[in-house]
Design a protein that fits this description.
Blueprint (H helix, E strand, L loop, with lengths): L1 E6 L4 H18 L3 H5 L9 E7 L2 E10 L4 E9 L8 H15 L4 E7 L3 H9 L3 E3 L11 E7 L2
Length: 150
């Protein structure tokens, strides 16, 4: 059973999950890891969600304000043993709900093209590809998405 907890980046389970995410991305991103890592600090993430499966931390996600109308989804991760249980979908849905509660109209995000599962996941959650934004503008491996929240 999934239980979601709204918290912040000081949450011990969130910190541990992000550590696992960073270890995974270091392998997947290879030489580009340092570039991406500089944009993924968690110190100032005030809107984070941790998912627990039967009482154990299983996944996480976060967002930060991007502009007056948008939040940027960050640090989405589910432990491999818990994948296929709709945990990431639950986390992303909660982040979108929270975004709307705070008065924002859309979510944007960046992921790597090599993260094939992530790209498919966001497309399946009705995120549309947009031109790369901010520091990702000329980065070949980056793919950016947005979702207008109704």
């Amino acid at each position: 059973m999934i239980k979601l907890k709204r918290t912040n980046s000081k949450d011990a389970d969130f910190v541990k999950l992000v550590g696992q995410l960073d270890a995974y991305l270091k392998v997947v991103d290879g030489e580009e890891h340092d570039f991406y890592h500089q944009y993924n600090g968690i110190a100032h993430l005030n809107n984070t969600v941790v998912a627990h499966w039967n009482g154990k931390p299983a996944g996480c996600g976060a967002f930060k304000m991007f502009d007056e109308k948008s939040t940027e989804v960050k640090r989405m991760f589910t432990y491999p043993d818990y994948r296929g249980k709709k945990i990431a979908t639950s986390i992303l849905t909660e982040l979108e709900k929270w975004t709307k509660e705070l008065g924002y109209e859309k979510c944007i995000l960046e992921t790597g093209k090599r993260q094939v599962e992530a790209v498919a996941f966001y497309k399946n959650r009705n995120y549309e590809v947009i031109p790369n934004f901010g520091p990702y503008k000329n980065i070949e491996n980056s793919i950016c998405f947005e979702k207008i929240l109704n």
